[in-house]
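yo

u said u wanted the structure for the complex thing, so here. seqs first:
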Amino acid sequence: MRPKLTSVEEAIGLCSSGDAIALGGATMRRKPMGLVRALAGADVGDLELWTWIGSADVDLLIGAGKVRAVNSAYVGFGAFGLAQTSRRAFADGSVDFRDWSESSLAEALRAGSAGLPVALTKALLGTSLAAGLATEVDLPFTEERLMAVPAARPDVALIHAQSADELGNIRRRRPNRTDDIDHLIATSARRLIVSVEEIVPRAEVLDDRDATIIPGTYVDAVVHLPGGAHPTGCDGYYDPDLAHLAAYAEASRSAAGIADYIATYVDGVDPARYRELTAGEVTA
Amino acid sequence: MTAAFDTDQMMSVALSRLLHDGEIGFIGVGSSGRAHTLVTGLPMMAGHLARGRGVDFDLQIGPLIAPDLEQPPGSWFDNEIYGWRAPALIGSDVNMDGFKRGAVSVGFISGAQIDRHGNVNVNRVRAADGGWKRLGGALALPEHCAFAGRVLLLCDLAERTLVEEVDFVTGFGHRHRGVTRAELGLPGGGPAALVSDLAVFDFAGGEMRLTGLYPGVSADQVEDRMGFVPARAPDLAELEPPTAAELERLAGLNLPELPY
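structre next:
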């Protein structure tokens, strides 16, 4: 295993224009926002996003003009309502939204993870979601009606985790309050970038291997980004920053608002500066 | 004498009467505003009521299995919900597999649009200019409709919500443009009832049918708030109001403040 610890710039350098980028986390928990901000400020575009349950990650990248298509089962802010930048991009046709259900999208990622070209689902039968996404197929061994969806095999996955060693063994610590499919996001992608709250000694990993959720052999780059999920939360470190999320939701109500937000928190703002800007906002 | 009660209490009591022994109900957490109260708050209240009557009814909140309703979370934000005292928090893909193999007895859902045949739309609605307006997304609503033993719909009646035909089928009901659940081979039972703010409906024959009115509500009042005229059950009657015991049990459920 080679060392994987690198800078955010080097890590994001693994992403190219036109890539399919998978984003981990769900709604307000462990969205890879530090990596997303770096991607939003990088010289890449025309991205196809894949995420199970999207929120500020998808909305911000759309606001930065980086996105051509979104695959997800949801983009929004839960209790804070709808993702307004995404809604504008949908209404004006500038982004192609491919709307999935939760299980069918998980199946597509699972197929990609397993090296299969398609996944099978019944969840989309009879729905309008199936148009352009799923095709009914005849199968051996069964008379049942099933739909096939293409496997998801994103070019790069970005996830935010709690800790890792320098070799990229990704750790989860208690409490576990997750409702995401980060392991499928991670294994479906051709390259994997993980940001973490803490870098821990290798001995700690070897002494407690049960806490390792993704082995370093699967990981291409690890970035030490404390607060890297902000304004979403990271279990065991900090809760979602509700005030910042509310401010984001408000900013995203207009194109000018989201442009101001990006000018303030993304353009030329490195992770250290971002932590300064949001210090006192984080509700630890 | 009947105690004073509010709409949410009446809805939760009506919903609780539809829950049975040995069932597992699935509650999602992705919604906001009134929809959140409808599909998260009311099913928790109904489950609490059913359990108070000795019905062995378990809830799961997304992947959180059978949380302790006696000790609710401090807020409705999902980091607190998933910190709720419970025997298990399972993986999200494992959770979806449970849906698919039929491990969920009852799904609780609402929609921006619900039509006569129980099709539900939470993805996108037609704007006045003919374009589309995007909502949040399907989440696991298609799974509720495809796989749950039965679906219990919750909504406030409004002409724009109760429509003859949904603009977009997120979750399949009993029939859409001549195609039926049976023809599609969907494993779940589909919509069994709609519990609204004025009345309760079933889907006998695969079509929404007015079966019970809340105290003091007329069938005409109900129809005035819908975009189509539903069938009326021959035994359409006024439902019993919440009992004092039911209201007392609800008062003992210290849920976080509901958004609406």
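Chain B touches chain A through 53 residues (CB under 8 Å). Helices of chain B lie at 7-16, 33-52, 78-81, 92-101, 141-147, 181-184, 219-224, 244-251.
cya
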